[in-house]
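User: Could you check the structure of this?
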Amino acid sequence: MTDTTRASLPRGHRPASDPAAAPAPPVPGSSPAPAPPVRAAAPAAARASAPDAAGRLRAVLRAAAVVSCVPYIALKTAWIGGSRVGIPDGSVLLDHPGVTAAVNGVTVLMDAAVVVLALLLTQGWGRRVPAWLLALPMWVATGLLTPIMTGFPLQVLARAFTDAPSTPAGSEPFLDAWVFGVVYTGFIVQGLALGTLFALYARDRWGHLWRGTVGRLPRSAVGPGLRTAGVAASLLAALAAVPHAMWAAGATTGLSGSRIVGPTADVRLLEGTYVLFAAMTVAGVLALALRRGRRLATRTPLALAWVGSGALGCWGGWLLVASAMPAAEGAGRATAAMTLTYAVQMIAGLLVLAVGARFLWRRGQDGPSGGTEAGAVREESRADGRARGRIRGRAA
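Assistant: Sure, the predicted structure tokens are below.
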């Protein structure tokens, strides 16, 4: 380096290539210069381990969902093949073998769909599936499994602490008791595993649609049409809950002959769960449609409406179809009141599903610019930018 170039540099500055830029050795007897602080790598390691933990959790839940389907599918396949394991002599299932085989085939496909959903919710290709193609079967799975997850443990507890019979005296046999224990336990595991997987999936893919509170929802999210449809769906759900509440209390008005013979604790508990799901539906829908509970997190009424409408709609449709089967004859055939109740709760559930889908679609159309919450975030970002500008100005 020439003397002219060296003279043009500020005092004390040396280029990296200049030997003079190397740090001077410490003076004997003086304290060594403190070493520059080393940034801890713990946060980075924690962030790296978080996806691994989430991946392991999803793998465990996927395995649980798949394995829990095995008993049900094995039993149904055996029955389709002619086996009578778990079916006692004189069971009504033996009266119409053709219809029973057809129903068993449909239910095998339904339980196999749980395996497909478990894979879809845990694989990369599952993110590319259209929203409706995933949400619709998940809504059906939620609706069919949740009442079992709620009702069966309550029935077991009722039988454990009371002497009430689980079936009316003199009623025709249906299945051996152990079949219900094996199958319903599998359903409970399916519901817990599949529900957790879907909650994780929905949070990652659509979580931005239900951020914030009900009070901060933009007006465009719930227009007059959606508000009217939501109120109508809530009224239908409440209407369907009335006969279920009567039957849960022990009334026999509108019941079939087989149900009048001796309403058991199991039946009353099951009817009570329908009242619970109707209340969840009404609470969730009205909170969003009428913007009640302004401090309530948006995801809470959405979850209530999702679970409640699924239970009402799917079981209403299932019971409506079952009441039209040839096996439901004589005293076991559903009355007009029962059929009307099932139809109303099915319509209510489907209407809530349509309203919810429209609500989420509008939230997606609003995008990051829609809603008061997004506007508050943008304003906060602008304020931070102005503050940083003032700091830089002072530093200059």
